[in-house]
Every structure is written in C-alpha cells, then in structure tokens.
Acetyl-coenzyme A synthetase
Amino acid sequence: MSASNQNITSVLKETRVFPPAAAFASAAHVPSPAEADRLRAWAESDPDAFWAEQAKMLDWFKPWTQVLDWSNAPHAKWFVGAQLNVAHNCLDRHLTNGRADKPAIIWEGEPGDTRTLTYKQLHAEVSRFANALKGMGVGKGDRVTIYMPMVPEAAIAMLACARIGATHSVVFGGFSADAVADRNNDAKSKVIITADGGYRRGKVVPLKANVDAALEKSPSVEKCVVLNRCNSPVTMKPGRDIWWHDAVLSADADCPAEPLDSEHPLFILYTSGSTGKPKGVLHTTGGYLLGAALTHKWVFDIKENDVYWCTADVGWVTGHSYIVYGPLANGATTVMFEGAPNHPKEDRFWEIIEKYKVSVFYTAPTAIRAFIKWGDQWPKGHDLSSLRLLGSVGEPINPEAWMWYHEVIGGGRCPIVDTWWQTETGAIMIAPLPGATPTKPGSATKPLPGISAEVVDKQGNPVPANAGGFLVVKQPWPSMMRTIYGDDERYKATYWSNYPGIYFTADGARRDDDGYIWVMGRVDDVLNVSGHRLSTMEVESALVNHPKVAESAVVGRPDDLKGEAICCFVTLKQGHAPTDELKAELKAHVAKEIGALARPDDIRFSETLPKTRSGKIMRRLLRDIAAGKQSTQDTTTLEDYGVLAKLREDEE
Ligand code: ATP
Ligand code: MG
C-alpha cells in the first residue's frame, strides 16, 4: 500500500452540476458558500479556536487545558484533561432539553415487528444494562465484544459500555466463529454480548452457536450475555452464559454516567478487509464524538423533526457514527432496520421510507446499484415524498448511479451528499455541505471545514488540477484514529510512513478546476496500462453508464505488451442477455466514453461480484481470477464464498 512513483491518469469526464435549491439552502445549518468558506478559513488559520468552538456542541464535565497535543505524533490527544461521557451526551442531556419523549430509535425487524424507544426509555434501558455489565465485573477500560443482529439492544449495549467506560468491539453479525474468536483475542475481551440469532432473508442466523465455537478459542472471555431475539434453541453454559432478560431483571435503573477522560478508549473496530487483514482501529471519547456529532449535523443538515435512516449495520463504522453516536448526540430520531433490502420483496426500503416518513436517507453505492438492477418499478410503487436529503458512503458512486438516485429516489429535489471517509477517520471528511456546496455526480466535493485533505504526488506536493494523485490529510483532526489496537508500529507503518507527518489514506483521487475531489478508489486497485495508471472506478463508471449494465468490477491482468490488460466483470440489468455482441458493444462504449487507452481487453459477464460483508467489491480476489491463479488471500470478510467458485467455473 505505498504511493507509487507515477501519478494516476484521470479519464472520467463528468460535467453536470447541481446547485442547492434556494429554499433548502436558506434553512440549512451551513446556508451559503460564503459561510462554508468562512468556516474553512477559520479552521485553517486557527484550528485550536475553531475546534474549541465546535466542541461546545457537546456537554463536558470538565474543561480541557489544551485543544490538541500533537507532541507524540502520530498519536494525537484532543481536548487534553477534559472529561465527558458519550452516553450522557447521547441520552441524559436530552431528558432535560425537551426531547425526553421524542423517539430516539425507531426499529423494524425483518419479520415486520417494530419498536420505538424514546430518549427516556432508551436512557433507562442503557442504565439498567450498564449496571448489569458492572454486576458481571465489567469496569472502566475492560473490552467487551458485541456480536448482535440489528436490534435496539445492539445500540443499548454500545451505549452501556460507553456509560461505564468499557471499550466495545462490535463484530458484524454476519461474520464466522473464527472471525469472532480472532477479534476477541486481539482485543482480549472480557465479556461478549450476543443473541440466540438474528433474521436474514427469512432464516435465523445462529449467532449463539457461532459464539459457542468462538469461545472455545477465546480464553479472555469470562461471560456471555444472550439476548432472546428469535426464540431459537441455544445451549447455555452454566456460570458463563446469562440471558439478557435475566441480567437486567435485578439491575438498578440508576447508573450515573462515568466521567471519562477525553482520550479514554471508546471503541475498537476492525476495518472491512477490502485490501487485506482487518486492522483494529482505536477511537477515543471526546474527539470521536465531536467528529460524529458535528458531521452528522452539517452533512445531513439534521433538524429537530427529521426522521433519519442510515441503512448500514452497526458492525461497520458507518453504523457506529451515523446510526448510534452522531444522531443520538444530536437528539435526532434514528431508524434501525434488521433485514435485507430485498426481503420479502425488492421494495422493502421504499416501504420503510413511506411508513415512517423518512426525511434523510443514507445508504451505499452497492445498494443503489442493486436497486437499479432490480428495476424502477419497486421505488415507483411507493410514496417517497417525505425524503429531503440523500447520502452515499462506502465506495465511489458511479455518476450514472448518482443520477438514478437523484431522479428515481430523490424525485430530482433532494441534494445528494456523497461522503468520503474511513473507519480510521471516525467521521465524514469530504462531502458536500448540502446548503452550500453545488454537487457533481461522482464527486464527494470538498473537504469539510477543519479537514485538510489534499491530493498530492509521490513527493507530497499538490498535483495540478485534473491530474490524479494520492489522497492525504495534512493536519490532525479530532475524530482521527489513535492507533491500531495493540500495534503502534503497524499504525505508523500503514498510515504515516509514506509521507512523514501526513496521514496517508491509501486512496487515489483527482482535484478538478473547481477544487472538487474525485475519489478514484484504492491505490492498490489502480491499473497500469501502457504506462498509464488508470483508476478502476473510472472504467467501471463508463461501463455502468451503458444502459444494460448494472454493476461492474475492473481489474488488471498481467500482460506482456501493455503491462496490464483491462479485465472487466460485468453484471447486467434484469432482462438483458450476455452475448458476444454485447461484449463488443461494451468495449466500444468504454473506448468512446473515456478514450481508446481504457478500452477493455476482456469482458466477463457475472451474476454477482465478490464483495465484503459491507458490500464493497473485493477487486483483489478478482485479480487472481483474471490472472487464472489460485488465491492465497485472506477471504474472511468475503460475503458469499459461492461467488468465487462460480466465477472460477465460468472461467473454465
Ligand atoms: P480495509 O482497510 O480493511 O481494506 P476498507 O478500506 O474497505 O477495508 P472502510 O474503512 O470501511 O474499510 O472503508 C473506507 C474506504 O472506503 C475508503 O478508504 C475508500 O476506499 C472507500 N470509500 C468510502 N466512502 C467513499 C466515497 N464516498 N467515495 C469513494 N470511496 C469511498
Ligand atoms: Mg481501508
């Protein structure tokens, strides 16, 4: 993952611009380009004063003596000496500011069961469970693994840990027993919180059985709390396992929020593993919460009456920052959904938006491309007029997918915020301020105020407009990761060794004439074709822009002549046949869209693509298939093992 000597050639030519509507802008938190510029200039000239002012949006038990201590770089300390509590900020303070009876979480389970928890109710449940954890011997600094379906108790468990100063490590409920054991052992968790199972496309995923297997290999774990979600049979080990409902039965509902140091470790979260072995990213209390809350307010323009829905899983950082911590810190109503977008039918998301009158909707390009593939009839059958803002995260969004999202879901009236960030950054870094930033399909637009993201060459100098380069962040920011848990050396080597003193994101990007940033995907995925370094995302976007293509993944295959040949895996929209004529047509289409240089050498049709559990295309696995070799790579975060076998068969 190192910055190569050569820059990246950008071939994408997207020129559409969508300025904010006047009515939207005038009511927005950041209402004009002038205000956005003022914030940016202030943050640049006096970052300490800027961040100190923003930090007033949180409740602090004790003030700081220093805003940033960077003397032990790259390990930052933010709001030095201050004390606060994340659960207090997400719950207690709303009980006295008029939100006690406001819905905090609106939840819908896959089978259609629903629950609404007001701030008062959520506060009571969190307090009770926090006391239950204390009763099990969990205290400040202990690690707790959370391996749960998407039920309110997942958020309750997170907040209960935060309340008493335990550090949580949420492991996505779709991961295997081995993945759970690895993460238990890496974090040396004392307790694991799980459920008997969770629903996924009508079936029960046996979470407790996975935990039983994981605990055979997790010597640090002393207790296991089990929520009864599905009434499915489980084995309870006496002395170790305890039902959630029993644990809270005798627990007191009064549990004062522990005053914690601003740098107290809030959570460890393992990255999605798109590029290799997951890293245990460590986030702390004050800076992280400020990043999550401030960006949630600015980027989603959150207002008191919004019904906000982020479709991520709490197992990912998006679920941490934008289902739980950001929205609750802002006193918003956050929707939580347990199931899949196509169960029982392909309109489940649209049904939920209509039912709860969702006004702000945040999802991923992988989902958007699936919706496009399934057809417009599904969203068109629902009233989506409650929506006022749409968001995207996780991968670069192809301009055509952006346009579809804008027109079919947003009815042409909703600004789209394409948000670039990483598990490591804790919060959104590059995104439109929807009342101030004109959007361009496929661009995350500009760094948020206070975020010094830049596109640089190998030497660290800013690249000229429209040239590709490496995305870096020059100054520390409050929600930045503090280290890789237990591995300071890997932290330094991974993020801080390419450019001394500068954070290396491992993503490639281009900056256009207006200073907009176009993230081109991972540096590792860049193709090297006849001496040009091309972004896979740009070739994919050209393919997706063909009316018959739903999704594509582009990788390089070693080629004697060109260095790398361009190999494209293509998924077609429903109703189109995979023919040789279409292959030729797609090759010609790409050449016409972005130039002969990017003309694909191979097109392979495929029903599905290998993705991580969080829905990101795993190009590293496709590279092996394209090259016709067996893979020896880490596949523990792969979503569907069958896909690889299928792709290999197609090959033969
Ligand atoms: P690993 O680091 O283990 O390989 P990962 O990078 O997929 O996994 P995450 O932290 O979940 O883990 O994802 C962050 C990455 O996702 C970014 O570095 C970028 O490549 C991509 N990404 C996220 N949002 C966007 C976006 N809006 N536009 C372009 N790329 C994005
Ligand atoms: Mg990453």
